[in-house]
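Example (one chain per record):
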Amino acid sequence: MPATGRIKYERNARPLYQAYLRVSNRVFMSLCVLFTVLILGVLALVTLYLLSKGFSHISLAFFTEVEIAEGMEGSPGGMAHALVGTGILIALASGVGIPLGMLAGIYLSEYSSNSWLGAPTRFIADVLSGVPSIVVGILGYELLVVPIGNANGFAGAMALAFIMVPIVARTTEEMLRLVPGSYREASIALGATKARTIFKVVLPAASGSVITGIMLAVARVAGETAPLLFTAGASRLMTLDPSEPFPSLTVAVFQFATGPFRDQQELAWAGIVILIVLIFIVNLTIRLAVHRLQAKRFATA
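Predicted structure:
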């Protein structure tokens, strides 16, 4: 094609190509908006349905009374024992799972580049994060319940911690990798050790994302039922002793929802609403705290 013909062809083709880019960009953006609205719509419908079924059954007795024996007439009682038990189980699981997961994530991000242990550890963490929770429950039953002889809160907390560790580890690793290497180089150039650089420079720089990952792990275990059915068991009593069968909100909801008594089924709907609200409040509080912490850090920098 002669040079003048090629130039004329390119001049005619350029507007068509730009029009193609504009149309394809709008189509892609429209699809993104459409599916975002669909997801939000489904979430809103599920939330509204749960609120309509359970909100009317929330009362003061729900927070102050414990479950009564099945078959007894009158009020079905409340879930005060299950709320307290869930809080204790999450605290015990977080006390074990979060430090172990963070240390594993720090190792994978900062120390495993020249080690043969890095790739297998990362692979195992990926596999464990996808293991069904009922498998964790059966494993906890065999290792922690059978030797002791009875279901107990410690076994339930360890099962939840087992679920938390790979999630926290992989999240911490990915977030630490996002911190620019110049941060590490500048700190070490000033004379800091590698450990001090990690805990004083790298971790604070990624604290917001790491805490978000931790909260996702906490929210995940807060809604688990299968591991607690096999390990912590169930109790109608208000107890603070984790060496005995321990109550939890999810197990109580499961038992009430599958039971034959209408009063307890209504109480299960109320428990679901409380569980969702608790997870929402925890996530929102942590995000606001992280946002304020980061804003304060940038203001003082």
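Caption: Residues 93 and 160 are 6 Å apart (CA to CA).
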